[in-house]
Design a protein that fits this description.
By secondary structure, the chain is α+β, with helices and mostly antiparallel strands. The chain has a single domain, classed as Translation Initiation Factor IF3, CATH 3.30.110.70. It has 3 helices and 4 strands, in the order H-E-H-E-H-E-E. The protein has a 4-stranded mixed sheet, covered by helices on one side.
Length: 103
């Protein structure tokens, strides 16, 4: 019984402290459309998953953009994404290096 109470307390505390709205950390990476993709250089395929905590999809996109940054890219073309209560969220995409628009 004590273990159950401790677990429920932990989950409640974790949920309350994790609910603060954090902005999407894109690290200078932007989502690229199909038409924009043709002008970019392919760097590699990335696949990320987040299965615990609130805001699974947002957290997964944060992970995906960080992976693109690690590869030296500035664009992410989403190939597939999914959200399931049991499996969590997943994003698969192409890490791209795109030319920056000239001002």
């Amino acid at each position: 019984m004590r273990l159950l109470l401790a677990f429920v307390s932990f989950v409640t505390l974790y949920s309350v402290t994790s609910l603060s709205a954090k902005p999407l950390e894109t690290s200078g990476v932007r989502i690229v459309s199909e038409s924009q993709r043709s002008t970019c250089k392919f760097l590699g395929l990335i696949s990320v998953r987040k299965s615990l905590g609130p805001n699974k999809l947002k957290g997964t996109f944060n992970k995906a953009t960080k992976e693109v940054s690690k590869l030296g890219g500035n664009g992410l073309y989403i190939v597939a994404q999914g959200l399931d209560w049991a499996e969590g969220a997943q994003v698969t995409g192409e890490a791209l290096l795109c030319e920056q628009p000239q001002p």
